[in-house]
Amino acid sequence: MVETLLMYSPVTSTNISEWLDALPNYTDSQLWAMVRLQPDALEDNHRITLTQKSKQTTLTALEAEKLEQLLEGMEQFVLLRSRAITLLKERGYDVTYFFNL
Q1: I need a surface site. Which of 61, 71, 85, 91 has the fewest CB within 10 A?
Q2: How far, in Å, CA of 84 to CA of 82, rounded?
Q3: pTM for the full model?
């Protein structure tokens, strides 16, 4: 269900607050699904590659823009996932595993 929501309403910098505001209304199962989501492997690899390249040389304008987009997406992913973990903790679940990753 969460995957379907993200597919039809992806998280963007303009709607991140809407996503964060909606999370408290999610069921426990939906929050757990959010916590278990993984970043897109191809985008994650591209982000890592561009980050490493940026430490060695100057990125082109296109590469720098892409890296910025990828970093923003990762920040939003982590923010939503962290909020879901916090809500689960508040609901009495043991989420200590996620603090040891």
Answers
A1: 61
A2: 5
A3: 0.78
Within 13 A of 93's CA, how many CA atoms are on the CB side? 16
Q: How many domains does the chain have?
A: 1
pLDDT in tens, 36-60: 988 888 999 999 999 999 999 999 9
- Give me 20's structure tokens: 């964060």
Residues 11 and 40: their CA atoms lie apart, in Å, by 13
pLDDT above 80 (res 7): no
Virtual torsion, Cα 53, 54, 56, 58, nearest 10 deg: 110
Residue written as token pair 């992806």: 10
Tokens of 39: 């970043």
Q: What are phi and psi of 94, to 5 degrees?
A: -85, 110
And the tokens for 51? 């980050």
Task: Please report which residue ranges of the chain form alpha helices under DSSP H.
Answer: 2-8, 16-22, 28-36, 41-56, 61-90
Give the range of the structural domain holding residue 64, as residue numbers without chain letter. 2-99
